[in-house]
Amino acid sequence: MKLNQLLSAALAACALSGAVAGEVEVLHYWTSGGEAKSAAELRKMMQSKGHTWKDFAVAGGGGDNAMTVLKSRVISGNPPAAAQIKGPAIQEWAAEGVLANLDAVAKAEQWDASLPAVVASVMKYKGSYVAAPVNVHRVNWVWASPEVLKKAGVAAMPKNYDEFFSAADKIKAAGLVAVAHGGQNWQDFTTFESVVLGVGGPQFYQDALVKLDQKALTSPTMTRSLETFRRIKGYTDPAAPGRDWNLATAMVMQGKAGFQFMGDWAKGEFIAAGKAPGKDFLCAAAPGTANAFTFNVDSFAMYKLKDAAAQKAQGDLAAAIMSPAFQEVFNLNKGSIPVRLNMKMDKFDGCARLSSKDFVDTAKSGGLVPSVAHGMAISPAAEGAIKDAVSQFWNDDKITVADAVKRIASAAKTN
Ligand code: GAL
User: Fold this and answer.
1) pLDDT class of 8 with cuts at 50, 70, 90
2) Between the CA of residue 270 and those of 143, 332, 368, 404, what are the distances in Å?
3) What is the DSSP string of 304-338?
4) Ligand 1 atom with least separation from CA of 135
5) Which residue's alpha carbon is at the smallest distance from atom 10 of ligand 1?
6) How many CA atoms lie within 13 Å of 199's alpha carbon, on the beta-carbon side?
7) Cβ atoms of residues 78 and 310 within 8 Å
8) Looking at ligand 1, which residue's alpha carbon is closest to its atom 11?
9) Which one of 184, 209, 315, 381 has the fewest CB atoms closer than 10 angstroms to its CB?
């Protein structure tokens, strides 16, 4: 065959299969062991559709570094095809006019019928889908080492702060670290919001941290929350400042520390290391929060691109993300649960099943609240200001609780 014949045969084959292979450059911050395994599942799925995956991973738990890099790429007119962004930040990007409309895929794949309404509304801007959700992470967990609990004579996972501090004292007395912590703003706040939820309950959490109501923010319940939060710090080790979250998880895994306050991406770390829930590690709702659920939905927004093949690849990425097969395999690795409704949970472990049950139950009871630490609740500006105030308090024992109450309440006015 001559070259032009070859070309037209190739083009005809393409037209028949409808396949247009494109490249998808995907910005994310999934670089720890469990996270990387999860991201690899998405890459595999895209490659199986003939597309090229260009990995744009920016290390840094919680995604602060990734967001900085994303901004500079979009401002310079060179956005990635997709980026892992979530919550109110999706609306902010959409308002800039830089996000692609995913309605065609969403309609063909019936997203409206497959997603909880509260999640669908976060993925839409002015009624159109601009992002595709991958999961539901629960943030209000505490993870524990059964080996450490046994050594210290702690019989059960603590259900409230009295039990927690008594367990922590025993672990300390046994010469081990009671609380594995990574001193970074988002990790400090991950602990803080679980404490606020446990001390004040879901209604107080909503008023203080979501509605940013000044009365709630300056109430005695906020004082008690900060006192409890500060008390926890006394159980962390001197090497905590700056430590990455997965290294804190490793301390629990290796039997060096008793507890870690962290979302269930920590479970992804345990699983990636071959550990089994119930045997090698334990999960429980953070003290006082068994009837509540702080949700954190990871999602990918697509940026407007001109190239037709790249647009096709974006559509395929969006469809892949919401497919039942991906939702299962991804979440088995990530530690989260599928965001897609009516998925079978038979392959999931006890922690995930508890999460799934509590997600449904708390949606009915009013205990389902958005995570502030993970960008689901308030504007990125207010979130950043409150996080700074909370971390300053955590890091500086000279700041009194009364002073911290004032600083947090004033940070909440940032917009
Ligand atoms: C969260 C994100 C999770 C997990 C974690 C640590 O904000 O939603 O997917 O990756 O940060 O990086």
Assistant:
1) low
2) 10, 12, 26, 35
3) ----HHHHHHHHHHHHHHHSHHHHHHHHHHHSSB-
4) 9
5) 30
6) 19
7) no
8) 62
9) 381
pLDDT tens sequence across 37-51: 999 999 999 999 999
Q: Write phi, then psi, for 396 (nearest 5 degrees).
A: -125, 105
**Are the C-beta atoms of residues 213 and 219 closer than 8 Å to each other?**
no
E strands, 297-359, in order: 299-302
* Separation of first and last alpha carbons in the chain: 66
Return the C-alpha torsion angle 137, 138, 142, 146, nearest 10: -60
pLDDT digits (tens, 9 = 90+) for 126-174: 999 999 999 999 999 999 999 999 999 999 999 999 999 999 999 999 9
Residue-wise pLDDT for 52-90, tens only, equals 999 999 999 999 999 999 999 999 999 999 999 999 999
DSSP single-letter state for residue 51: P
DSSP string for residues in 19-36: ----EEEEEE---SHHHH
Distance CA 15, CA 9 (A): 10
Query: Which tokens in the block code for residue 248?
Result: 């804190």
Expressed in angstroms and rounded, the spacing between residue 63 Cα and the centre of ligand 1 is 7
Binding site membership of 374 for ligand 1 (Cβ less than 6 Å): yes
Output the CA 2–ligand 1 centroid distance in Å. 53
From the CB of 348, is ligand 1 less than 6 Å away?
no
Q: Is the CB–ligand 1 distance for residue 61 below 6 Å?
A: yes
- Which ligand 1 atom sits nearest the alpha carbon of residue 296? 8
Computed over every residue of the chain, the mean pLDDT equals 95
Rounded to whole angstroms, the maximal C-alpha distance in the chain is 83
Is 265 near ligand 1, meaning CB less than 6 Å away? Answer: yes
185, 264 Cβ separation under 8 angstroms:
no
Identify the structural domains of the chain with CATH numbers, from first to last. Answer: 2-137+297-354 (3.40.190.10), 138-294+364-411 (3.40.190.10)
- The protein residue with its alpha carbon nearest to ligand 1, atom 8, reads 298
Which residue, chain included where needed, has tokens 């609306």?
A: 91
Instruction: Give the position, in ligand 1's atom list, of the atom nearest the Cα of 263.
Output: 5
Q: Is the CB of 296 under 6 A from ligand 1?
A: yes
SS (H, E, C) 244-290: CHHHHHHHHHCCCEEEEECCCHHHHHHHHCCCCECCCEEEEECCCCC
CA of 146 to the centre of ligand 1 (A): 25
